[in-house]
Structure formats: structure tokens, C-alpha cells
Inverse folding.
């Protein structure tokens, strides 16, 4: 995507109008909405013909079509399908099948007694029958772009992903304006290689697709570039682009930026509920209670029974540690749409909080069923199995999560810890180093590394790691990792004491006094130091008291992760040789 | 005045002939109007008036027959001795005795003159005896063409034999009847419907029929032949397109459409079959030959509610028909309530002991509960009734296989194969048996044959039923260590039957054996998502994940650490679960096959 996006807006607008018409006559509501939104921000562009006058169905089928379409709009799907059962023209054929599909989907939701229950075998077999019907037509080459889309959707529902991908890419090639098909295709791209191998039509819609696909692949910067370019190319007022950008920031963990973008979006489009669940997640992470409560009130006033609303409210209760209620709201969301990914994952988190590992596993698994690229669910699964003391399982899940977010240190740390449990020290070390090198967000990797070295009775390495940890954390004097900090000081004091570097030992022992847990030990240490000092010469005391105010440890401060990396590699090479 | 005329009539000369013909006409017209009592009354008077003319006695007896006074009619005919002089009368008398369930007497009547020639001496004996019976000097009663009458007598004799459970003699009689009158559909139907003949015998029969001689023109000949051929053994001409060409006007004829539906049924194309039967039943809601196929279609498509309604309707209207109770039994079978299912299927078989589908369904009701012995007993009964049908044998073999009696199973399958050599279901089962005997090459051969046959049958789309075949091909290839091929077959099975737990875990196993642990873990996960308590997948997943710990790089972006870890393939002998699978798979296949076969046959009759 080196070339920037240049669009002929008049052509685009004509395309959009055509697409809107094509989608709306087929009852593809979401695509119509999406295209119309896009079209709306091009309202300043003038085109000659507003309504395409292509006939949609054969004249003799037009009456049946009108009747069926009206039933479809009223969600009387079976009735709709009945009236155009024998129609030949492609639009009517599509509507017939689409109505059948919708009828099955709705029955699936209506018949759902229990959230975790598998699919009703009867409905599955009916879906299969629909699939067979479509396949027969497909093999005869009788499917138009929209029917191909439906075939792809059905295939995907039946978990035949490779076929689905193939069929959907055929569909978008034939009709690039159908956003729904692109969207389904995005969900089928499991890795970057697949994205690259896809043959796509050269159409301006491709940019939207690519950006979305990059976003899904966590290639956030690439996505952001395209979105910016699209905004510059004329879609400046598009709320969709704004929301997508907010999601990019969210993925990049640039929380403040993301929240600001969402705020902008809300001002522009106040009654838009799409993506509000993402906003609530951000507010949750930032623990912005008031904001979240306000948002919850606001969205529930707009529409109580939207999945996004349920999700926002669920997050709100979760932040108030009312996990039962939170689960209730996530469940409501899932009753409305069992394919709603975010709610499954969030519900898994809630069950984890409630120590219900079984339900948590089920929720996470459902989330993965819906979308295999949800790294949070994989990570959650890993955590759950960690609690269940099944490290080889949790290792697998953490790996999946890490695979999806290669540069997220949290996954790497989790991986390292699991390796540690499996007594695979080499791998554990590698993971911690990697976590360190990708920017240790939680600052725990170095500590883990230190502890691991300690465990391996490698005091020099441990000490250097600990001191680095101390250096990083001393300045902000955070409340959260107090005990770790105190332990680090204690370790360092003991270490230097053993090495007979009394000055340093003294400094760290002094530090120990600042913490409740290590106060006594610190005093004891100081006493030993004093004793030792009594034996040694004792005229430098004053100097070290000075240096205690500046805890820098010049000797070790130059050990950066990179250096550690190097020495580690030497070590591992040696060990391999010894094997 | 009236008194006067009355007295005048009283004076009629008793010797003056009455116009009996008028009364005869009266009797006929009452018969046509189905006013049998009136007909009987006047027929009786006619007999008196005509002083026992044979023809009049015949009509009197006919009236009695129609009033279901069978014994009376038979006695009348015998009493007058007409059965010795008139073949029609003999026919009627025998018919009456048959209806009165006096089978031995009926048989005696039909073969009375040759008591000395032993009719149990074989078919040639019968032919002779029949011929001599028919060739007797005969006084005809007008209105009955001789060939039809002869054929009717033979058909009747066949019926008597069948009632006496002597099916081979019966079929011989039917064949003779059909040869004498090719239009005698009763005889044709008795032969075809009750599956007395094998496919080859049926073909022989058709080719040996003197259609050419008995038809007036070439067109007639073609018509008769094509109609009969299209009704013959449907699963031998299963590709629905290769249906015999018939007269274009007969395209919409319901009987021929039923045959078409049945072909679709055997090709496992249930939706199409159901569509046709539904159309037929809209035109003729109680079309007898269509109903069993329609019911079978409902069972296949699991349309319980429609079946419920149909069964109620049928039982209300025709409680005397076996098919009505068959529908009820099938409903309960479909609902998984085997006890009532058996009760009603039993009722169906007691109403018509020759109703094969009911016997098979009766067997199925035991089979799904793993009551192998009882299931086998029912299938045996069915196989005795339907000599020309391979399905009972197939099922018996299946049950033998399930009780681990492979040798016996093989025997039954090869018997089934002699009847239906190209049937893919039989080939498939033979493959399963070979698999169980650990003769994988042989198994592969059978499965591939079956697959080829299936491909011929339903082109271009293979019916979903055959998912088991693909999976078994996969299992066999895996055993033969052709992992690529195995994976391919399993994947095809998955296309036919998506979200199938056992297919997914088979895929996972193959992937594990190929050393593709990542993929394998994914497949086992998917399998467990569908079948949560699958022991095999659970233990395999644990093993695979433990291997993955050592094998894969600690995080993405790191190079894989050499090959120092032994791959799963090399370690296979030590994995106890691989052993488990070897023991486990075949019964599972058989299980699936069992499900597959269930009800593929509801409509043999």
C-alpha cells in the first residue's frame, strides 16, 4: 500500500448509489446502511442519475417479488420464501434463499435454551440442506455475486472455511460494492499469508477491505495509514472511518487517543451505538467510573435491547465488582446475538472473577468459535488453565494469543511463566527477554527474569536484573509493586553483603527500612553490615550516606536488555554444547 | 280394477316362458350400482325362473361373493357341480374359498383333477398340472376372454400358495399367469412388490414375456415393456437419469412418478424424492404404492410433525391397511420411542405379513437399542419374505459385525452381494468387515469400488449419506500410512457433513501422525467443541499439547529448535491412546454405518 488513495469521487458516488440500490432490493440491510453512510458524506457531490433503472426481476415475477420483499422486511421469512419458491430471476432467487437462511438463524436464536448448548441438530441439517441446494447451483455456475455471498456465509456457518473463502472472493470480484461480502471475507482471513494470497478486484472498495483486514490482523499502523488516506481522499465526514480509527488506537493501547476519537464520534453521531462496547472497554481499562456510568445511561436510553448496550452496562457492573449482574447483561447480549464475540470474552473474564473456571472456559471457547483471532479469549483460556494447573494447555493458549499479538509483552510474560512451571528454563528466559525487548508494559518481565536467575542460583545475573528493576521502579514509587520492590532491595542488600560490597549493601538495606515487610530484616542487615564494617576500616561511612539519597548503582546500570541478551546467548550456547 | 288385473295375472300359464332376460339385465344393473342385496334377490329369482342355467347360477354366486357370503357362494357352485364344467365357476369358487381363508380347500379345487400328480414335485409338475387344468374341455360363460381367465386362475393359485407360505410355488404360478396374459398386473405386482425375485430373475421374466405376440402393434409393445421396466428393481437402475423412456403422455402418470421418486430415494436424494411424493399425494392422497416411500422420505428428512399428521389421517381412514400402522410405528421410531414403535410396527406386520418395510423397521427399532439378537430375528423374517432383496441380508450382516462375528457377517454380505452386486452399501459394509479383519488393502479396494459406484449414482453432487464412506476411506488410508490421502478423504467427509466431531478428531489424529501438531491441536479442539466428552480427543489433545511444549518455538518469531525432539510419529508405539484408537475405530464405523443404513429401505415393497 505504498500508493496513496486517489478517488474519483463522482464515480465513487455513482457506484455507491448503484450499490445501495442493489443491496436494498435484496434486503441486505447492513450493507445498505454502510454504503448509505458513506454516500452521505459525499452529499456535496452531484451526479446525474440518482436511481438506477435496471430491472431487478423479470416482469412476470415482479408481483411475487414485491409481495415476498414486503414479508421479508417484516421478518416473515418462511412466508417470504414460500412466495418466491419457483422464481427464476437471480434477485428473487437470492431473496428466497436469504429468507430461508434468516429463518434458520432466527430459529436458532429462538430455540436457544441454554447459552452453551450446541447447535440444534435439526437446524444444522436444514442448513446443510440449504448448502447442498446452493452447492448444486454453484457447480452449475448459476450463482450471481449475491448468491455466491450467501453460499459463502452458509459455508462459513458450517465451518467449511476454505471453501467459504474461495466463494466469497469470487463474490467480491463479481460485485465489489457489496460490503457485507467483504466483511465476511475479513473474518475468514486467519493469518497474513492468507491475506497476501487473496486475489482481489481492483476497486476502490478494496481499500476499505484492506484496512479492515489489517486491523483484524493487528497490523494497526498499516490500517491507520489507509484510514487517514481515505479520510483525505474525500470521506472526511465518515463516522465509520472515525470509529475504525478509534479501534486502531484501542488496539495500539493508546487509550487516551482512542477515547478522544470516540468522543469526537459521539459528538458527530450521538445516537450511533456501533462500537460503543469498545468505548466502554476503554473506559473500563482507564477506570473512568463516572464516564462509564454516563455512557451506560445514555446508551440504554437510546436502545435497551442492543448488544452494544448490554455490553456497556455489563462493563459498568463489572467495574463496580458486581460480577453477577455483569454476567447477566452479557448473557442478555448473547441471547440477542450468539455470534457476538466481545460479550463471550467479557463473560469469560467475569466468570474468572467469580472463580467459575468451567463456565469461563466455555465462554472463552465460544468466543474462539466465533472468531479465532480474539487474542483476549486465548489469553483468558491460558489463565484459566493455569489456575487449573494444566500448564501444557495454558502454554498452547498463550502461544495462540502471542501469535496474534507478537509484540505484546503480556503474552510473552505469561508464556515465560508457563515455561517456568514446566521447568523449561531456557524457553522461559527467552520469553522474558523477548518481553523486555518489545517494551515491557507492565514492568514485570525484568522482575521475573531476576527471580528466575535467582532460582537458577545465578546471583550475578539476578542482581543485575533486580537492580535494573529497582532503577525503573524507584522513581515512580508506585504503590502497586511495593512488595516486589522491597524484596528486590532485600535481595540486592544480601547479594552485596555476600560480595562484601558493604557500601552498596548498606544503601539497599536502608531502602528496606522503607517497607513494612522488610523493615525488620533491613535492620538486621544493617546490623550485620555495621559489624562487618567494624571489622573493616570504617572511615567512609559519611560518603555512603550521601550516596544513599541517590540510589544509582553505577556498576550495573549499563546492563541493558540487549546486553543481557548477549550474555544469555553465550550461556545457552555453552549449555547446548554441554548437552 | 286392480283386483281384476291381479286375478288375471294369477292365471298366467306356468309353462309360458317368462322374459328372464329382463330380470338378468336387472341383476346386472343392480350389480353395477353396487346394490348387492337387490341383485342377489333377483338373481335368485332368475335362477329359479331359468331352472338353474349355469350362467345364472354363476351370477347368483357372484352376488353372494360381493356380499361377502363366501361359504354360501362356494357351496352353491359346488352343489350345482358347476366347478367341474365351467372354469369360471371353478375360479369363483376357489376365490371364495380363498377369501374365506379355506386355503387347502381352495387349492384342492384348483388342482382337483390331478390329485395323483404330486404338486410338490417341483415347478414343472405344477406347470403341467395347471395346463391340464386349463386345457380341460370348458364351457365358457360369455364376457370372459380365455387368456385373461386362464391367467386369473393361475394368479389365484399363486395367491393360495402364498397364503400357505409356499412362496416359490406361488412365484411360479404368478410367472405363468403373467406369461399367459402380459397385461395381468396383479401377477406382475405380486412378483415385484413382494421382492420375490432377484434383479436377474426379473429381467429374465421381462424378456421372456410374450409381449410381442400379445400386443397388437409395435407401439403397444413398446408401451407395455417400458412401463413394466420402469417399475422394476429401482436400486439397480439407480442413476435417476437413466430411467427407461416411456410414452410422453405417461410422464405424469402417478405410478411412474412413484417409481421415479423411489429411484431418487435409493440414490439418497431424499429432498427430491420427498418433493415428488408430496406432489403425488396432493393429486391422490391415498396412493397406496406412494405412501411407504413418502413415509420413508419423511423419516429421512425428520419431518416428525408431518408424519404425525399423516399417520393419524391414515389410521382414521384405513385402519385395516398395514401402511397406516407402519406410519404410526415410524413416527414413534423417529421420536426415539422404541416400545410403541415396535407395538405399531408389529401391528402392521400382523395386518400384512408380507409388508417388508415394517419388518425392517421393526428390526431397526431393536438395532438402535443394541438388541442385536432380536434385531436379527426381525431381519431374518424380512429376508424370508423378500427373497429378491438384499437389504435384510445386509442388515443381518451388520448386526453380526456388531456382535463381533466377522466371519458370519462376511457370509451375509456376500449373499447380499449376489443379489445386488453393485450396491454401494453392500460394498461399503464388505469394506468395513475387511477393515475389522485388519485387511486394509482389501478394505480400501471395497471402499474405492463403493465410492466409484456412488460417484456414478449421484453426479455431480454426492449425497450427504456417504460421509461415513469417506471417513472410512480415511481411516483405511491412515492404517496404510497414506496420510495425505487419508487427510483428503476426511476433509471430503467434512464437506458432506460439516461440524462432525468424529471426522474432526480423525483429522486431528492424522495430522498428529503426520507431525503437524499445531494443526492437530486445533482439530482436536474443534472436535471437543462439538463432542465435549469424547475421551479419545481429550487424551490425544493432552498428548499433542505436551509434545508441543517441547517442539514449537517459545514464541512466534523464534526459530524452531532443531529436530532434537522426537516427532510424534516415531513415538507412536509408546502412545497408549494410539492403541485405543485402533480398538475403537471400527465399532464406531459400524455404528455410523448403522445409522447410515437405517431406513434406506423403507419402501422395498
Amino acid at each position: 500500500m505504498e500508493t496513496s488513495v486517489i478517488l474519483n469521487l463522482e464515480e465513487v458516488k455513482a457506484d455507491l448509489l448503484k450499490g445501495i440500490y442493489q443491496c436494498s432490493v435484496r434486503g441486505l440491510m447492513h450493507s445498505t446502511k454502510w454504503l448509505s453512510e458513506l454516500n452521505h458524506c459525499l452529499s456535496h457531490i452531484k451526479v446525474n442519475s440518482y436511481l438506477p433503472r435496471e430491472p431487478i426481476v423479470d416482469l412476470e415475477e415482479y408481483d411475487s417479488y414485491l409481495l415476498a420483499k414486503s414479508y421479508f422486511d417484516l421478518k416473515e421469512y418462511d412466508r417470504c420464501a414460500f412466495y418466491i419458491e419457483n422464481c427464476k430471476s437471480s434477485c428473487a432467487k437470492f431473496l428466497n434463499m436469504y429468507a430461508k437462511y434468516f429463518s434458520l438463524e432466527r430459529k436458532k436464536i429462538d430455540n436457544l435454551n441454554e447459552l452453551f448448548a450446541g447447535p440444534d441438530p435439526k437446524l444444522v441439517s436444514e442448513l446443510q440442506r440449504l448448502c447442498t441446494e446452493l452447492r448444486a447451483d454453484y457447480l452449475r455456475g448459476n450463482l450471481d455475486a449475491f448468491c455466491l455471498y450467501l453460499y459463502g456465509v452458509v459455508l462459513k456457518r458450517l465451518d467449511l472455511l476454505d471453501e467459504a473463502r474461495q466463494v466469497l472472493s469470487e463474490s467480491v470480484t463479481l460485485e465489489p460494492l457489496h460490503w457485507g461480502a467483504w466483511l465476511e471475507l475479513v473474518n475468514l482471513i486467519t493469518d497474513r499469508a492468507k491475506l497476501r494470497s487473496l486475489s482481489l478486484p481492483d476497486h476502490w472498495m478494496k481499500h476499505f477491505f484492506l484496512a479492515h483486514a489489517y486491523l483484524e490482523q493487528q497490523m494497526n499502523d498499516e490500517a491507520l495509514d489507509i484510514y487517514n488516506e481515505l479520510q483525505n481522499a474525500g470521506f472526511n465526514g465518515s463516522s465509520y472511518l472515525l470509529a475504525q480509527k478509534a479501534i486502531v488506537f484501542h488496539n495500539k493501547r493508546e487509550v487516551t487517543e482512542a477515547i478522544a476519537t470516540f468522543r469526537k464520534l459521539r459528538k458527530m453521531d450521538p445516537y450511533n451505538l456501533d462500537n460503543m462496547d469498545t468505548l466502554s472497554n476503554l473506559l473500563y481499562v482507564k477506570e473512568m467510573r463516572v464516564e462509564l456510568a454516563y455512557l451506560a445511561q445514555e446508551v440504554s436510553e437510546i436502545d435497551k435491547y442492543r448488544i452494544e448496550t448490554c455490553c456497556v452496562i455489563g462493563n459498568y457492573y463489572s467495574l463496580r465488582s458486581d460480577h453477577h449482574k455483569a454476567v447477566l447483561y452479557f448473557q442478555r447480549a448473547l441471547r440477542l446475538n450468539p455470534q457476538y464475540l466481545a460479550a463471550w470474552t467479557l463473560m469469560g473474564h467475569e466468570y474468572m472473577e467469580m472463580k467459575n473456571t468451567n463456565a469461563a472456559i466455555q465462554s472463552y471457547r465460544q468466543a474462539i468459535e466465533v472468531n479465532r483471532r480474539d487474542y483476549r479469549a486465548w489469553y483468558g483460556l491460558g489463565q484459566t488453565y493455569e489456575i487449573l494447573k494444566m500448564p501444557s494447555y495454558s502454554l498452547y493458549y498463550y502461544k495462540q494469543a502471542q501469535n496474534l499479538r507478537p509484540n505484546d509483552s503480556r503474552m510473552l510474560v505469561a508464556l515465560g511463566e508457563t515455561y517456568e512451571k514446566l521447568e523449561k528454563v531456557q524457553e522461559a528466559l527467552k520469553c522474558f527477554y523477548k518481553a523486555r525487548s518489545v517494551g515491557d508494559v507492565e514492568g514485570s518481565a525484568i522482575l521475573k527474569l531476576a527471580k528466575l536467575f535467582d532460582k537458577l542460583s545465578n546471583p550475578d545475573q539476578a542482581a543485575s536484573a533486580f537492580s535494573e528493576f529497582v532503577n525503573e521502579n524507584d522513581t515512580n514509587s508506585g504503590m502497586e509493586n511495593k512488595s516486589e520492590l522491597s524484596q528486590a532491595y532485600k535481595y540486592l542488600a544480601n547479594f552485596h553483603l555476600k560480595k562484601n560490597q558493604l557500601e552498596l549493601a548498606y544503601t539497599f538495606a536502608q531502602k528496606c527500612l522503607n517497607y513494612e515487610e522488610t523493615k525488620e530484616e533491613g535492620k538486621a542487615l544493617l546490623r550485620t553490615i555495621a559489624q562487618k564494617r567494624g571489622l573493616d576500616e570504617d572511615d567512609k561511612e559519611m560518603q555512603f550516606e550521601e550516596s544513599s539519597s541517590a540510589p544509582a548503582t553505577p556498576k550495573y546500570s549499563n546492563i541493558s536488555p540487549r546486553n543481557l541478551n548477549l550474555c544469555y546467548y553465550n550461556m545457552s550456547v555453552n549449555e547446548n554444547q554441554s548437552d | 280394477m286392480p283386483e281384476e288385473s291381479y286375478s288375471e295375472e294369477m292365471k298366467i300359464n306356468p309353462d309360458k316362458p317368462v322374459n328372464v332376460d329382463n330380470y338378468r339385465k336387472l341383476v346386472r344393473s343392480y350389480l353395477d350400482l353396487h346394490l348387492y342385496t337387490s341383485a342377489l334377490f333377483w338373481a335368485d329369482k332368475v335362477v329359479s325362473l331359468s331352472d338353474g342355467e349355469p350362467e345364472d347360477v354363476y351370477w347368483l354366486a357372484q352376488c353372494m361373493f360381493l356380499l361377502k357370503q363366501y361359504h354360501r357362494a362356494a357351496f352353491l357352485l359346488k352343489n350345482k357341480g358347476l366347478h367341474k364344467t365351467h372354469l369360471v365357476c371353478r375360479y369363483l369358487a376357489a376365490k371364495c374359498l380363498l377369501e374365506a381363508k379355506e386355503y387347502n380347500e381352495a387349492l384342492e379345487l384348483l388342482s382337483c383333477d390331478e390329485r395323483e400328480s404330486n404338486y410338490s414335485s417341483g415347478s414343472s409338475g405344477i406347470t403341467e398340472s395347471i395346463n391340464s387344468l386349463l386345457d380341460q374341455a370348458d364351457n365358457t360363460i360369455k364376457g370372459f376372454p380365455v387368456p385373461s381367465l386362464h391367467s386369473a386362475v393361475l394368479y389365484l393359485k399363486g395367491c393360495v400358495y402364498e397364503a400357505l407360505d409356499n412362496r416359490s410355488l406361488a412365484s411360479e404360478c404368478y410367472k405363468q399367469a403373467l406369461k399367459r396374459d402380459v397385461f395381468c398386473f396383479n401377477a406382475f405386482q405380486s412378483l415385484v412388490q413382494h421382492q420375490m425375485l432377484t434383479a436377474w430373475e426379473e429381467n429374465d421374466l421381462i424378456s421372456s414375456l410374450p409381449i410381442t405376440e400379445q400386443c397388437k402393434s409395435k407401439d403397444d409393445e413398446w408401451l407395455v415393456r417400458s412401463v413394466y421396466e420402469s417399475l422394476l428393481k429401482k436400486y439397480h437402475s439407480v442413476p435417476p437419469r437413466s430411467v427407461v423412456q416411456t410414452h410422453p403422455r405417461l410422464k405424469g402418470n402417478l405410478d411412474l412418478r412413484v417409481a421415479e421418486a423411489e429411484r431418487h430415494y435409493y440414490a439418497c436424494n431424499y429432498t427430491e424424492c420427498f418433493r415428488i411424493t408430496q406432489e403425488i399425494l396432493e393429486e391422490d392422497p391415498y396412493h397406496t404404492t406412494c405412501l411407504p416411500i413418502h413415509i420413508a422420505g419423511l423419516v429421512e428428512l425428520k419431518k416428525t410433525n408431518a408424519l404425525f399428521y399423516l399417520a393419524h389421517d391414515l389410521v382414521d381412514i384405513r385402519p385395516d391397511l398395514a401402511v397406516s400402522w407402519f406410519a404410526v410405528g415410524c413416527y414413534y421410531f423417529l421420536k426415539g420411542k422404541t416400545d410403541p414403535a415396535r407395538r405399531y410396527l408389529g401391528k402392521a406386520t400382523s395386518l400384512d405379513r408380507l409388508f417388508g418395510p415394517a419388518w425392517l423397521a421393526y428390526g431397526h427399532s431393536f438395532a438402535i437399542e443394541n438388541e442385536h439378537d432380536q434385531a436379527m430375528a426381525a431381519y431374518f423374517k424380512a429376508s424370508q419374505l423378500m427373497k429378491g432383496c438384499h437389504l435384510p441380508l445386509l442388515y443381518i450382516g451388520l448386526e453380526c459385525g456388531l456382535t463381533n462375528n466377522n466371519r458370519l457377517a462376511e457370509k451375509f454380505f456376500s449373499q447380499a452381494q449376489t443379489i445386488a452386486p453393485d450396491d454401494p452399501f453392500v460394498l461399503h459394509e464388505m469394506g468395513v468387515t475387511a477393515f475389522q479383519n485388519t485387511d486394509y488393502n482389501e478394505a480400501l479396494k471395497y471402499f474405492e469400488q463403493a465410492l466409484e459406484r456412488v460417484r456414478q449414482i449421484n453426479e455431480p453432487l454426492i449425497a450427504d449419506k456417504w460421509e461415513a464412506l469417506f471417513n472410512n476411506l480415511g481411516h483405511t488410508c491412515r492404517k496404510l500410512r497414506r496420510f495425505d490421502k487419508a487427510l483428503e478423504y476426511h476433509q471430503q467427509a467434512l464437506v458432506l457433513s460439516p461440524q462432525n466431531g468424529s471426522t474432526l478428531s480423525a483429522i486431528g489424529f492424522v495430522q498428529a501422525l503426520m507431525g503437524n501438531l499445531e494443526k492437530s491441536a486445533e482439530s482436536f479442539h474443534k472436535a471437543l467443541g462439538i463432542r465435549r466428552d469424547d475421551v479419545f480427543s481429550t487424551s490425544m489433545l493432552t498428548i499433542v499439547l505436551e509434545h508441543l511444549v517441547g517442539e514449537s518455538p517459545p514464541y512466534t518469531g523464534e526459530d524452531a529448535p532443531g529436530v532434537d525432539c522426537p516427532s510424534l510419529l516415531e513415538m507412536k508405539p509408546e502412545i497408549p491412546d494410539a492403541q485405543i484408537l485402533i480398538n475403537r475405530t471400527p465399532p464406531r464405523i459400524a455404528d455410523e454405518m448403522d445409522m447410515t443404513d437405517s431406513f434406506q429401505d423403507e419402501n422395498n415393497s
Observations:
- The first helix of chain B runs from residue 2 to 10.
